[in-house]
Amino acid sequence: MDLLSFAFVQRALIAAALVGLSSPTIGTYIVQRRLSLLGDGLGHVAIAGVGLALMTGSAPLPWAVGICLVGALLIETLRQRGRATGDIGLAVLFYGGLAAGVLMASVAGQGAGGLSSYLFGSLNTVSSGDLWIVGGLSVIIIVIAIGLSPQLFTVCADEDFAKTLGLPARLYNYLIVVLAAITVTCAMRTVGLLLVSALMVIPVAAAQNIFHGFKAGLWGAMLIGLIASLGGYVTSIYANLSPGALIVLITIAFFVVSWPISALLHRHSRHIGSLGHIASGPTNG
Amino acid sequence: MTCLSVSNLKVELSGVLILDDVSLEVDDQQTVALLGDNGSGKSTLIKAILSLIPHSAGTIDLLGTAIERFHQWSQIGYVPQRASVSLHSTTVREVVTSGVLANRPIGWPSRRDRRRVDWALETVGLTDQAKQLYLHLSGGQQQRVLIARGIVNQPRFLILDEPFAGVDLINQKDIASSLASLKTTILVVLHETESMAANLDRTVVLRAGRVVYDGAPTTLEDLGSHESQPPARNPLLTGMDRPWIS
Fold this sequence. Notes:
Chain A has 285 residues and is an all-alpha fold. Chain A is built from twelve helices and no strands. Chains A and B meet through helix 7, helix 8, helix 11 and helix 12 of A and helix 2, helix 4 and helix 5 of B.
């Protein structure tokens, strides 16, 4: 237990917990909008920000946040104008970001290896400054994603219907991708930019199998993300393994276990449902 | 009092003329059926009325206000043709509750909203299924959920786009009876009017993007329409005749 008394371990645990909570929170809306790979694409875009920071000798996190936000707004604009369906624009943006990041890291004299800690995460090197930024941004993400959950759910579930309620659907769609971009950059020090999408999506998929309904699924995904992040990091420091990879593999373990649980729950639910049908007379169908 | 006034409406999508010179009025407390063959422009008209798609000419007034300046969305109920697939991990109550958010860009549903949801579920006969997943319901029950979502604000004007798609006749009549009990103004897109015949005040028939009949309740069969006719989306190209204008 003495390892937990080190300041760098404590910072890493707090960062892992915050990212473990915030990533599935915004991931719930991304999955509902069927944009599960958005986080992966934004991770590629953020690499350009890291490369730019290495080239200019400045802190990577603000640059990554800025570049990722621009990329996210561009992606949503393309989607809303119906021009993202061919995926060509997205592909250019995503791989352009990756290539630009690697190129700028090379110019900075660090090569692709200089990006490694951002691509795969490096929890043990989270500084106090990083923690303040990640902490502040994670709290903002969680507060907005939960505070606006009725509206964001409605827009993600049925955009046309949301518009007929007078909700600003376009604004909310931009808000979701902006929050996703911030989440991606917050997670780059924990699971890394290449694995961040897994922490946004897989806890949500597992929670949807286990928990009943949207709201329960949202809380469940946050719980799974938190357990996986803390469990993955603690295991990694004792087993001397990569924390980012362990965190993602634990979320996948949750997903695999959620299948049989889901089958059992659905069988039970359908049984109760059929009893309800009998009790309330013939139903349509 | 006129709930809806559409005048000389023209809608073009991707350069194709979908609706041409469509005029239509729905008065307070009327139940009006909008009929037409596939591709006649019924759903496009509904979407234009709700400002979901732009119109290139003409005017739309909802509850006496031009659609461009309209904000009283809690007075309008909308039931789409089918639900978005994104409702798969959602309970029936959650789907219906989303309807109470009209004109509320922030905030959570209140206790009063929860009572409205209870009322809407009871009206469509789904109180016992409130906690079930939407996905686990039959097609007809899913349609009832969407109706409950559309009526949860007790709207003054209810717009339904083929609410009976995939629902058997007995349950169509049940739903029609629920709608009649609301005593509200209704514009409903239908393929056939049998289930709602007793409640209809008027029928409007669209063909190839134009109103070809507006009068006493009738059916497409009575008007001599044929489903075998190919969808004619552009009346300017098809040289459509207008034999049934009353």
